[in-house]
Amino acid sequence: MENNHNRQCQDLPQVLLLKPPPPIMVVLGEHRFSSTKFQFLKAWDSPLPLNQFLPKHANSIQAILCCSASRVTDDLLQLLPFVRLVVTASAGTNHIDLKACRRRGISVTNAGNVYSEDGADAAVGLLFDVLRKISAADRHVRQGLWVKKGDYPLGSKVGGKRIGIVGLGGIGLQVAKRLEAFGCIISYNSRNKKKFVSYPFYSNVCELAANSDALIICCSLTDQTRYMINKEVLSALGKKGVIVNVGRGAIIDEKELVRCLVTGAIAGAGLDVFENEPHVPKQLLELDNVVLSPHRAVITPESFTALCELVVGNLEAFFSNLPLLSPVMIECIDG
Ligand SMILES: O=CC(=O)O
């Protein structure tokens, strides 16, 4: 019986895992991560180096499961000629060479909308924290400065603020919905004007910044959005402007952002993502007008549970020749 089972498992198509999944995913997904349709192949369990491990299993690997920390490059795909699907556990796909996937006829799925609500909650939380100085005032109290030095400077009202959302996808839309309820005035920039919303659209992000009190970055990192938030955009946002980033660090010119925050060229920032994670520019650690978060905006036990369902659902759909649940529209990457 056991031998039969082992033989059946050996015959199953394999899904390559390049890096161990985060422990929370293992715990939450344990009951989901077994399937009669495929088998996971854990690259890190093998004593072989990757350049020997991959050719050894190349004939049976038909799919790859990755997260934003493992890059899926053209060179990697070259070694795995039978791969037809890349499933990423992230919303962003900047770690995957999408053009190579398209050229090789490989489908890609991402986290779809499972992170949208939690990502939006975190973005709104960062905005509140920066505007109302919640973390900074907390430090003031804890350090005994309320007693020694008196009141902490006031924060500013959220309601009525003009919010420029950069990227009106799943997370951006949920940010808009939440901040509208607080009385904010929403505008946005994205690749294309969206027919289904009436918020003002700015095709030029600099103009959006000039007409916003706060910019919230929710877009994905692509060749078009890398360093899109540059010196010009930050100076258009101005001395009273704040910026929140839950997209990817490299969407903002980080050196310029640090300079603007240090010199007061913008008023503050709430940052969940950084260009060179887990490293955060040292100057930011000193600034009270900056709220820092370790790239966890979208992650809660609830979103991870939904993610596990989606990841396994995509793999099962693929191995049953059914439509994928959250395909990435590869055409979009060319704008
Ligand atoms: O940052 C998180 C993601 O892209 O899923």
From TrEMBL:
The record's Pfam families line, in alphabetical order, gives:
2-Hacid_dh, 2-Hacid_dh_C
Q: Per its UniProt entry, what is the enzyme's top EC class, as one word?
A: oxidoreductase
Q: Does the keyword Zinc apply?
A: no
Which residue numbers delimit the D-isomer specific 2-hydroxyacid dehydrogenase NAD-binding domain? 124-297
Q: Which residues form a coiled coil?
A: none
Q: One of this protein's GO BP terms?
A: photorespiration
Which EC number(s) are documented for this chain? 1.1.1.79
Judging by the UniProt lineage, the source's domain of life is: Eukaryota
CDD domains of this UniProt entry? HPPR
Q: Keywords in alphabetical order, please.
A: NAD, NADP, Oxidoreductase
**Residue ranges of the D-isomer specific 2-hydroxyacid dehydrogenase catalytic domain?**
51-328
Recorded hits in InterPro entries, A to Z, give: D-isomer_2-hydroxyacid_DH, D-isomer_2_OHA_DH_cat_dom, D-isomer_DH_NAD-bd, NAD(P)-bd_dom_sf
Family classification: Belongs to the D-isomer specific 2-hydroxyacid dehydrogenase family.
- Do you know which PANTHER family this protein is assigned to? 2-HYDROXYACID DEHYDROGENASE-RELATED (PTHR10996), GLYOXYLATE_HYDROXYPYRUVATE REDUCTASE HPR3-LIKE (PTHR10996:SF255)
By what name is this protein known? glyoxylate reductase (NADP(+))
**What organism is recorded for this protein?**
Manihot esculenta (Cassava)
